[in-house]
């Protein structure tokens, strides 16, 4: 039986926890942070309406992010604001933080005034009608408004 416990221990490695966060933030097309260790805290809003602050002392955690603003505060005192259209945040037992965003923008990336006036989010597929199309149109407009409102805080 002793031999079995030694074998079983080989399959379960202990995770080494750091005193600082190691942050990876990415979209399907870009990496905003790739193993950044100079981040003090991350402020975000969750899909269920909560507001969160992530730091190195925070417990293991996973949540779905509400489209809007993420604020990243660095140890040196600066901060960076990023507008996103939703995603997932996960804090792991080793103090690594993975943030997968559907899309993300910084202040200089887009013409925010043009976005606010755009109706492209409400365009429906040609020839498509029905409750599903109306729902997608409504979701598109709501997403545009949430992203535009978050952009005002950049």
Overall average pLDDT: 79
Low-confidence stretches: none
Give the name of the CATH architecture of the largest domain.
Sandwich
Structural class: alpha+beta
Give a quick account of the main beta sheet: strands, pairing sense, barrel closure: 5 strands, mixed
CATH superfamily assignment of the largest domain? F0F1 ATP synthase delta/epsilon subunit, N-terminal
Compute the number of strand runs: 10
Helix content: 10-25%
Encode the helix/strand succession as letters.
HEEEEEEEEEEHH
Strand ordering within the main sheet:
2-1-9-8-5
Calculate Rg over CA atoms: 20 Å
Overall shape: globular
Strand fraction equals: 35-45%
Q: According to CATH, what is the topology of the largest domain? A: ATP Synthase, domain 1
In whole angstroms, the N-to-C terminal distance is 61 Å
The CATH class label of the largest domain is Mainly Beta
Count of discrete alpha- or pi-helical segments spanning 4 or more residues:
3
How many structural domains in the coordinates?
2
3D architecture notes:
This protein is α+β, with helices and mostly antiparallel strands and 154 residues long. It folds into two domains: 104 residues, F0F1 ATP synthase delta/epsilon subunit, N-terminal (ATP Synthase, domain 1, Sandwich); 40 residues. It contains three helices and ten strands, in the order αββββββββββαα. The strands form two sheets. It has a five-stranded mixed sheet, with no helix packed on it. Strands 4-3-6-7-10 form a five-stranded antiparallel sheet. A hairpin with a 4-residue loop joins strand 8 and strand 9. The longest helix has 21 residues. The radius of gyration is 20 Å and the shape is globular. The termini are far apart. InterPro entries: ATPsynth_dsu/esu_N.
């Amino acid at each position: 039986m002793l031999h079995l416990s030694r074998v079983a221990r080989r399959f379960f490695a202990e995770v080494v926890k750091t005193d600082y966060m190691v942050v990876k933030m990415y979209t399907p097309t870009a990496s905003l942070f790739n193993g950044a260790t100079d981040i003090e805290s991350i402020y975000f809003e969750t899909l269920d309406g909560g507001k969160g602050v992530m730091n190195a002392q925070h417990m293991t955690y996973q949540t779905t992010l509400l489209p809007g603003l993420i604020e990243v505060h660095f140890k040196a005192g600066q901060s960076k604001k990023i507008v996103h259209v939703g995603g997932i945040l996960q804090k792991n037992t080793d103090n690594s933080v993975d943030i997968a965003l559907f899309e993300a923008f910084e202040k200089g990336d887009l013409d925010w005034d043009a976005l606010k006036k755009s109706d492209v989010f409400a365009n429906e597929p040609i020839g498509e009608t029905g409750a599903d199309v109306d729902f997608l149109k409504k979701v598109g407009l709501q997403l545009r408004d949430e992203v535009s409102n978050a952009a005002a805080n950049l």
